[in-house]
Amino acid sequence: MKEQLKSIRNQAEAELSNVQTIQELDNLRVKYLGKKGELTSVLRGMGALSNEERPLVGQLANEVREFIEGKVAQTGKELLNKQRFAKLQEEVIDVTIPGKRKNLGKKHPLSIVMDELKDIFIGMGYEIAEGPEVELDYYNFEALNMPQGHPARDTQDTFYVNDNIVLRTQTSPVQIRVMKDKKPPIKIISPGRVYRSDAVDATHSPIFHQVEGLVIDKGVTMGDLIGTLQVFVKSLFGENSKIRLRPHHFPFTEPSAEVDVSCWSCGGSGCRMCKNEGWIEVLGAGMVHPKVLEECGIDPEVYSGFAFGIGVERTAMGRFNIDDLRLMYENDIRFLKQF
Ligand code: 2U9
Predict the structure, then answer these.
(1) Does the Cβ of 143 fall within 6 Å of ligand 1?
(2) What whole-number percentage of the chain has pLDDT above 90?
(3) Closest approach atom of ligand 1 to CA 286
(4) For residue 221, with 0-12 CB atoms within 10 Å meaning exposed, 13-18 middle and 19 or more buried, which class applies?
(5) Which of these, 193, 266, 298, 326, is most buried using a 10 Å CB contact count?
(6) Over the stretch 9-24, which tens digit does the pLDDT of each residue have?
(7) If phi over 0 gives left and psi between -120 and 50 gives alpha, with beta otherwise, what is residue 276?
């Protein structure tokens, strides 16, 4: 039995020194030390030994077990280290290799301006209101003091889905919906896409974006409107910007005005940007027409309000000196990556 134990020890040592994987190692551990292992089966025969021999063989057997266990543990460590080293080798990053440049996208010029407009008015305490682009004729026209046959409807050439449903021509119907649901005070902006069946050219598109604003409360005046617009243009076009109001007419505001800002490129002295005018038209505005207030159940004797509308494409073209609106829709990466 001693011989058997020695040969088991040598055999185990030989096999353990050629192990390549943790699995192989575990198989050898089971082969020698397992319940049905070679060492275990030898030990089962110890019962047949003489009393003199048993302790000697027992001791030798324990030495062999400890040797094999030790060898298994050590080999296990070595294999794990080898595995870890191989993994590290494989994972070595050559930091000198230039990184893969992630082509980060850019905000679209319209999103840049739209978000800037939102930030300015949120900063002035306005809430954002949104609503359907496919709108009822009532909210897009009737409630805005443009009854059937009203000439202003033509100026806003409209996409009709059917007699009562249109693609909204401005975001004002959103404000009408708010005025019908919420009692004053109301202080909202409604940004979004609008549709007009205009022929596409350098300054017109059948789809474009607006940000309209509305304030309704007791004692709201034209002065409040002008003050608000001054703060707005200074935030968007610079501290030295001034505004000029030119009388105009909108069916949904009375009085109404087109609003110009002093040219941001020449400061007002006249240049190519402002066609030597010194002023550039940026938005329209006015006091909410009493008939619109009444239509929404708001008493014009108690409440008054102002409203304004900004074309986002027009603002972006001025801001980024873009001379053709179509560039903002053609998704040419050479154009878009400039922003
Ligand atoms: C309600 C009452 C009044 C919104 C207004 C304008 C003037 C305006 C244009 C700007 C550029 C349209 O995109 S554009 O061509 N809009 O000039 N919009 S006042 O007036 C309202 C809105 C809602 C209830």
Answers:
(1) no
(2) 73
(3) 19
(4) exposed
(5) 298
(6) 999 999 999 898 999 9
(7) left
